[in-house]
TrEMBL record:
Residues 253-382 form the Thiamine pyrophosphate enzyme TPP-binding domain. GO terms for molecular function: magnesium ion binding; pyruvate decarboxylase activity; thiamine pyrophosphate binding. GO terms for biological process: aromatic amino acid family catabolic process to alcohol via Ehrlich pathway. PROSITE patterns: TPP_ENZYMES. This is Alpha-keto-acid decarboxylase.
Length: 408
């Protein structure tokens, strides 16, 4: 069971009958360490031969990297491949910043028609040789299936198989496939190519506005872009938070965590704890809406006890903004009961946490400066934003959904 969990990189559940749960067992440890499934050497050799035939000296290899690379902990291998000439790297939304977004080979984040930069979109959609590594093809990772590349024509390196053209290689594990890819590209000696300067869709400098200007998404995210420091784990909840965070350009040694495949609201709040325990050298920064936070808010007590320096931005817009944008903006079921959010940390046993509320540009700037000075302290910041306001990416996606629906 444990070997299957490791091999698939998925959760596993073991059911123990009640009548044996308290049974005495031998106190014996596993004599051998658990190992994941291994690739058959003959299948791997056949895969390598096919890949060498596919990769030519005059080619450019465009890698589209997905979240399963994270699950396997193979980020460093992708980064090593990115150093080779002739390689460009784009990431799916669920693996944003898997390569430093300022790296010369970086194309930034690919989201189909809604990709922030046209050059990034074209580099993937029109790639002469597209290699999909650990990708997930879903509505959100493809800009609601607005991608123009043909997956069947690309090389696919998945968790437990590979596909090159119409040839399938079952049982080729991703970590072995990446080693083969690195070796093949190294031997091909491709010509150097330049990536896209993956600038953010959020301007580095905030729009000119007075300090007493009420906050909007257009004002909020540029301030965040300027504020985020290296070694930050950005955790963005499904909704306006994720759509805003995806347009950021993250600094070095940073990640974006979220739920872009299932969009399970409430997931990211307890994920703060796991992210901090996994990488204690990074400061976790959470962006979450009031509707989502109400589902898992009780976990804040544990987070504030175990994570000494988290920063939470509670986006209070009094409802499910994504749903308002897609359909029925006036429906009462889109509303969220308003809570006294600044009081929540103390109720959950954390009176030491700073709990400012910000509603203007000046208030936000003051709090951001304070969090930078006090990097060893926790902040729970309530951000007042308009009900019908949204980040750029959400607006573009909704326009695409509306256009698609009008053609049905």
């Amino acid at each position: 069971m444990l070997t299957a969990v490791l091999s698939a990189s998925k959760p596993g559940f073991i059911g123990v009958p009640l009548d044996v749960a308290a049974a005495v067992v031998q106190d014996a440890t596993n004599s051998e360490p658990l190992t994941v499934a291994q690739t058959r050497p003959d299948v791997l050799s056949a895969c390598e031969r096919a890949l060498r035939d596919h990769v030519g000296r005059d080619s450019c290899a465009t890698l589209l990297v997905g979240p399963r690379v994270h699950r396997r902990g193979l980020e460093s291998v992708v980064q090593e491949i990115a150093e080779l000439p002739g390689v460009l790297v784009a990431s799916q939304s669920a693996s944003k910043a898997i390569l430093d977004e300022r790296h010369p080979a970086s194309l930034g984040t690919y989201l189909g028609r809604t990709t922030a930069q046209p050059a990034t979109r074209d580099a993937v959609d029109q790639a002469e040789m597209l290699i999909m590594i650990g990708t997930i093809t879903s509505d959100f990772t493809t800009g609601f299936f607005s991608h123009k590349y043909v997956p069947e024509e690309a090389v696919e390196l998945a968790l437990d198989h590979a596909r090159i053209a119409h040839a399938h290689y079952p049982g080729v594990m991703l970590y072995d496939a990446l080693d083969v890819l690195k070796r093949v590209i190294t031997d091909a000696q491709m010509s150097a190519v330049e990536g896209v300067a993956a600038s953010s869709s959020v301007p580095d400098e905030a729009p000119v506005a007075a300090d007493d200007e009420p906050l909007t998404h257009q004002l909020f995210w540029p301030e965040i872009q300027h504020w985020i420091a290296p070694q930050t784990t950005v955790i963005a909840e499904a909704g306006t938070s994720s759509y805003g965070a995806l347009d950021l350009q993250l600094p070095a040694d940073s990640d974006l965590l979220g739920q872009p495949v299932w969009s399970s609201i409430g997931y990211t709040l307890p994920a703060v704890l796991g992210a901090r325990l996994a990488q204690p050298q990074r400061r976790p920064v959470l962006f979450i809406g009031d509707g989502s936070a109400q589902l898992t808010v009780q976990e804040l007590g544990t987070i504030f006890k175990r994570v000494p320096n988290s920063v939470t931005f509670l986006i209070e817009n009094r409802g499910y903004t994504v749903e308002r944008y897609i359909q029925s903006p006036e429906a009462i079921y889109q509303d969220v009961t308003e809570w006294d959010w600044p009081s929540i940390p103390a109720v959950l046993g954390a009176p030491h946490v700073h709990t400012p509320r910000v509603g203007t540009l000046g208030e936000l700037r003051k709090v951001l400066a304070e969090t930078t000075q006090n990097r060893d302290q926790s902040y729970f910041i309530t951000v007042d934003l308009p009900e019908r306001d949204a980040p750029r990416l959400l607006k573009v996606l909704v326009e695409g959904i509306a256009a698609s629906n009008s053609q049905d």
